[in-house]
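Exam review. A common question shows you a sequence with its structure tokens and asks you to describe the fold in words. Practice with the pair below. Do the first one on your own.
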Amino acid sequence: MTSNYLASLRADSARFAAVLAGTDPSTPVPACPDWSAADLVAHLTGVQTFWGTIVAERLTAPPAEPESDAAADPPTDLSGLLAEFAAASERLTSALAAAGPDEPVWTWHDTDHTIGFVLRRQAHEALVHRLDAESTAEVPFDPVDPELADDGVDEALDVMYGGAPPWATVTLDGPVGLLRTTDTARQWWLQVGRFDGVGPESGTEYQDEPMLALLPDGRPTFTVQAAAADLDAWLWNRPTSGPVSVDGDASRFLAVLREGIQ
């Protein structure tokens, strides 16, 4: 899969820009009701600029906030915003193409501080926002590579919703679920849990923070089934092309998903 991340990132970034090019910038984004099409472009531009800087400069700490230039007027029209996005996307993909996956850089992950983490994360970030762009522009969804979708489910469950910081106290007291893909024959067992603790750097106190923990197997009390692309989109609270079936009492699991991931 690693060899396909860069191709997917490039393709989904290009599709993102293409479908939004003729869209009214004020059009709301269905999955993010507080965002307009212009906000969506600005968001992904900011994300790809941020990580492009980290990879290109091999930073071991987050980049400093850029100083505001009062004389510079940021673009307000979609064509100007998309031009900025194209530049940010090219810088990010070029930097990733020139880097090795094991090279160290800063990431927000607790243990994985490599360019490989950034590459994987940005491939899935572009995919999710490509789906946002298509639903905003009301155009049909391009097919999603099932292997990428399987990996997206892995990442969503294990990285985005899964686990807890090393300083946290974890309690696994929720139901066990089994997620299956109907087209790729993949499956994941998980348990709903929570964690408590105080962030050592921020001082923020967490109490009963919901989380998921992947399990090697188990006796599920609920199941979720869908095609890989639909399961991946559904975990991100994005529209699906096909059905997602939920059987059993999945209320605590669904409550975790409703919290969402950005």
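Now try the second one, then compare your answer with the model answer below.
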Amino acid sequence: MTDLEDALFAAATTFALIVLASSPALAHTGSMGGDFISGFAHPLLGPDHMVAMVAVGLWGTFLGVPAVWILPVVFPAVMAVGGIIAIVGATIPYVEVAVALSAIVLGGMVAL
């Protein structure tokens, strides 16, 4: 095998071991299940995240350059920070209420 094939095999093996060793994702419990795939897919397919992503994209479009590029990049970065906070075990009170309010605020920003 070549060096590239060795590196790809090592990366795939490492990824498979991480997935198999991971604990259940408890993000938004009750909404999608508790396995790795559900936890991974929720930020991409969860209705609250979809509404927020569409609102961020529309808001960036209305603001024009450079916001049309900056906002859609910052949004998933902030979601990743939230994921890291959850991974380290910290809890944020009323997080679901905050997500709902952020969707309302983003909708208001688009409307204005």
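Model answer, second protein: Residues 43 and 49 are 6 Å apart (CA to CA). Residues 3-111 form one domain. Full marks require stating both points clearly.
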